[in-house]
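Check these lines:
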Amino acid sequence: MDAAPLSDIRVLEFGHYIAGPFCSQILADQGADVIKVEPPDGDASRGTETLSYNDVYFHALNRNKRSVMLDLKSGAGQEALVTLLRSADVVVTNYAVGIPERLGFGHVRARDVNPRLVYVHASGFGNDSPYAKRPAFDGIIQAMSGLVHLTGEPDGMPMQAGLFVPDHVTGLYAALAVMFGLSRREATGEGSFTDLSMLDSMMSLLGPCLAEAVQLGASPMRVGSKVRRSYAGTYTAADGYVYLAPMTLRMWTALAGVLDAPELLPYFAAPAADTRLDHRDELDRTIEAWTRARPVAEVVARMGDVGVPCSPIFSVDALAADPHVRHRGMVRSIPLESGVGEVIVPGSPLPVVDTAFAAGPPSIGQHNKEILGIAPGPGPSAP
């Protein structure tokens, strides 16, 4: 990256787990000076055993940041906090509602200290919600947002997604809120406060499902490995699974040709005469009889030859080995926090500063002296 867009921006992250750290990591990738403000015991998601699940989880969300350790329950910690707030452009937190105020960095006090602060508070339901005080993790928001209800087999139990979707979506929205706040500040000279809700963030992804349920009286239900209201889905191959999406008339005609199954053609004979969804089970049996007899690679190649969208169902390790992923730099490594060894982490889909993957996460309070001129004090308490 030739010019880092946020090179003159200082971000204070009062974060833990995913949403806050993910937001500030996106900002760090664009050149922001991200200072992770941690309590004496550190971010609760820090791992205690090198290369354990918690350790790699923490590394994936906290690279290229600096750390200040403050005991915000002490007078000295509050004094240092004011110094940090005066020096900052942005505050990002995903602590539960009420905790920022209790620890002295709520948005009202922060604004009094520094009126130009762009402040983003991400929480489960938002500060003014009737549910504001409810604890909320990713799974709670999945359950309430409709995601769990819509995931799984039609006659099976509702299922959670395999990734922490609400946490990451909220982190993305938080990064957008920061950028919009900085743009507004440039125009008006004023800071801003964004009260961001994880549930609101997930509801923004519902698209037509909301109108279906509320306005049309057709509440969406689970469809398993198929695509709702479109002819696409997952099929079994001889050695795995494939995803097929013969959405258009041309693609359906090409699919029928590859399968040597002209009996498929009458179900989609013209753009205004698509009856496939009414006969989905019958048509799927014909398609899957063909895919089951062939390995994944052959199915993908044969469909690709005639322009029918088709892909393997990758495991994460297969994805990491894929030529596209490697070519695009989406498998990266960063130094371990200890400095000895490395951790594999996802790359960024955006251009990033050259240092984005050069530094692993900081240790707790590693930069106290550098930033505040004070020693970090005692480390994490003994278990």
